[in-house]
Write a structure and sequence with these properties.
Blueprint lengths: L19 H25 L1 H8 L3 H29 L1 H18 L6 H15 L2 H12 L2 H12 L1 H20 L1 H22 L11 H7 L10 H4 L8 H4 L3 H32 L7 H27 L4 H16 L5 H7 L1 H29 L2 H36 L3 H26 L6 E2 L4 E2 L5
Helix pairs in contact: 1-4, 1-6, 1-7, 1-8, 1-9, 3-4, 3-5, 3-18, 4-5, 4-6, 4-9, 6-7, 6-18, 7-14, 7-17, 8-9, 8-14, 13-17, 13-18, 13-19, 14-15, 14-17, 15-17, 15-19, 16-17, 18-19
């Protein structure tokens, strides 16, 4: 590790420096929960909307493609905007706009209108992760960022669990429009808390000097804490960022692995229904079990590199090692169908472990950005990677899933399509790990001011 860093030694008692940074982490966790709750509402209201608007499967698919495409495009632009506006204002604007978009679904009266509303939701919801990763980079030292990322990223799973417990009940009691209005309004409650609590560490009156110093303990001697000067420094163009292999390592990692999460979200209920003849509420418990395991994996994925760091391993090497362990944890999903022949819950277990491993991977791959890039560029790089992940999801759906599933369904052999998909899931993380750490085998932080790379020991 670079000896010019003010790094606390492994085993430092962090309780003496304060815990206000975890209050900020909890705000980001709730924003992510609301973000996923808002995007999940339409899937739970699908039966009501099919009746009201006479949708067929193609109509619903087109509406969801509108969301994915807008989300992917939004990830590029919104990261740049958040870097320019700063975390407080950028996160607030994004949340306000996606909340309005979520509520706006209640006002449309046509299939085309839902497509427009869904597209607007996608492009505005894209702001959550660039803003969240940037917040983590500002408020946490390198050794804690994966844990903080894992905690807020678990909000995605909590949102997916909360949605089926609330949305159908609202729709049944007061109507489907109120489901959009109530869930969308939660974002404005968060906005009040965000503006009441959040400042950058340099401007926060609630932050002790000891905790401020701890947060910036990775800053080289003689340089000011970047959180104090980030808004005054020049911004970096996308062309410049794409010139670094560190950017491409993150981009390719997201392109390969993000589509797997979308596969779990959109195809798990269908797999359970087709393989085990589950219908209605019978699917809810196994699906919820997968998301509960995912939440555990998200937080556990943050703890794993911390454990390596506490044993004296440099931060980047700890991240690299943790991601390899996580990639191997996905592999048993290859045997999901075989185990499911013995007992459905064995299939649910290995799929849940794979989903948990994805969330652990996500916590760490996001953190590689703040490991290698200055804080002022984190939002932009995260946005570029998010765009790549979204496009990977669209490519997998259009080129693999759609063609393959239609082909095997026509043959009455849909189980073969799922087996091929589970094979892809099992191996893709190992492929992504090899590509990422071939491109960036050692810790090589970017020094944007000089437009070059400043190598350090791995």
């Amino acid at each position: 590790m670079n000896p010019t860093l003010h790094s606390s030694p492994p085993g430092t008692d962090t309780s003496v420096v304060g815990k206000y940074r975890w209050t900020i982490c909890s705000l980001v966790f709730f924003a992510t929960t609301i973000n996923y709750l808002d995007r999940a509402v339409i899937s739970l209201l699908k039966p009501y909307l099919e009746t009201a608007f006479r949708w067929n499967a193609g109509d619903y698919a087109n509406i969801e493609i509108a969301f994915k495409l807008a989300y992917a495009v939004g990830m590029v632009g919104v990261g740049r905007i958040i870097d320019k506006l700063g975390t407080k204002l950028g996160y607030a604007i994004s949340t306000a706009l996606w909340s309005l978009a979520a509520m706006g679904h209640a006002l449309v009266s046509s299939t085309v209108g839902f497509g427009v509303a869904r597209g607007f939701l996608g492009i505005t919801e894209a702001g959550n992760f660039p803003a969240a990763i940037k917040t983590t980079a500002e408020w946490f030292p390198q050794r804690e960022r994966a844990l903080a990322t894992g905690i807020f990223n678990s909000g995605a799973n909590v949102g997916a669990i909360v949605a089926p417990l609330t949305v159908p009940l609202i729709a049944e009691t007061i109507g489907w429009k109120w489901a959009f209005l109530i869930t969308g309004a939660l974002g404005f409650i968060w906005l009040v808390l965000w503006y009441a609590i959040y400042e950058t560490p340099a401007n926060s009156k609630r932050l002790s000097k000891a905790e401020f110093d701890y947060i910036n303990s990775d800053t080289p001697v003689g340089l000011p804490a970047e959180s104090a000067v980030v808004e005054e420094q020049p911004k970096t163009s996308w062309a410049t960022l794409l010139g670094f292999r560190q950017t491409w390592a993150f981009v390719l990692g997201k392109f390969l692995t993000d589509p797997i999460w979308w596969f779990y979200l959109f195809w798990l209920p269908d797999f359970l229904g087709k393989q085990y003849h589950l219908t209605g509420t019978a699917i809810a418990l196994p699906v919820a079990a997968v998301y509960v395991l995912s939440s555990i994996g998200s937080v556990g994925g943050g703890y794993l590199p911390m454990g390596f760091i506490k044993r004296g391993m440099p931060a980047f090497q700890a991240r690299k090692t943790a991601m390899l362990v996580i990639a191997f944890c996905v592999f048993p999903i290859v045997f999901a169908q075989y185990l499911g022949q013995l007992n459905m819950w064995l299939a649910v277990l290995v799929i849940g472990i794979a989903a948990a491993a994805h969330q652990a991977w996500s916590a760490n791959i996001f953190t590689t950005v703040s490991d290698m890039f200055p804080k002022r560029a984190v939002g932009s790089v995260t946005g570029i990677g998010g765009f790549a992940g979204g496009m990977g999801g669209i490519a997998l759906s259009a080129l693999v899933q759609k063609r393959m599933f239609v082909y095997y369904e026509a043959l009455g052999q849909l189980n073969k399509a799922y087996f091929i998909m589970f094979l892809i899931c099992g191996g893709i993380y190992l492929l992504a790990w090899v590509i990422m750490f071939t491109l960036v085998p050692r810790m090589e932080p970017i020094k944007l001011d000089a437009a070059d790379v400043l190598p350090t020991a791995s």
